[in-house]
Design goal:
CATH class: Alpha Beta
Oligomer: single chain
Number of helices: 7
Number of strands: 5
Strand order of the largest sheet: 1-2-3-4-5
Distance between the termini: 71 Å
Strand content: 5-15%
Order of helices and strands: HHHEEEHEHEHH
């Protein structure tokens, strides 16, 4: 019994050390990481605010709509010169078709060029298939973790004002990981134009 307690103690210490030294180092990224650890306890509105804060920390403008009458769009993000409609779903299970349908329609209502769903626990097969056919990008907990690491990188770059900064690049502008995440999401989703769409 004592041996089991010692092993559990060692395991907890190892997990703590790994998180301590592999996690974010900058204040904003650390705060976002702490909040994300509590994501399952967040209400829908709290998750929308968390996502808007994360987008802002990455250098994007973000406006929370949320609530009744939002037309299926919780946050609108200015991303690489485009408006993005974001549906935030903090479900206790994989997300189905409905959020994909809602954000697709809501993106058109708000004249957004892209539509995203962010759901930490992922998506059902049906939601993935619908996203492919409508061009909606799907993001999960792994992507949120990448975005938090991106915030950490951006803050580290800002903390070095006296060092010679490299030429501005997409990474310095906060788009490198985001663009990679969008490309990965788009691999899962392909756009099929509707016959009524303008050429």
């Amino acid at each position: 019994m004592l041996g089991l307690i010692v092993l559990v103690g060692i395991a907890v210490a190892v997990v703590w050390l790994v998180r301590r030294f592999s996690g974010p180092k900058t204040p904003t990224a650390q705060e976002l990481a702490r909040r994300f650890e509590l994501v399952r306890a967040m209400s829908g509105a709290q998750f929308e605010i968390f996502m808007a804060d994360l987008f802002r920390a990455m250098g994007h403008q973000a406006t929370v709509l949320g609530g009744a009458g939002d037309q299926g769009v919780d946050v609108i993000v200015a991303y690489q010169g485009q408006r993005v409609a974001v549906q935030c779903k903090n479900y206790k299970r994989a997300v189905g078709n409905k959020p994909v349908q809602e954000v697709y329609a809501g993106a058109r209502h708000y004249r957004c060029q892209q539509a995203w769903v962010v759901a930490p626990l992922g998506y059902t097969k049906g939601a993935i298939e619908l996203a492919r056919s409508t061009g909606v990008s799907l993001f999960d907990a792994n992507t949120i973790g990448q975005w938090i690491r991106q915030v950490d990188t951006l803050e580290k770059e800002r903390e070095r004002p006296n060092q010679r900064q490299p030429e501005p690049s997409k990474a310095a502008a906060g788009d490198n990981v985001s663009e990679q995440a969008v490309r990965e999401a788009r691999k899962r989703a392909s756009w099929h134009p509707h016959p009524d769409d303008p050429a």
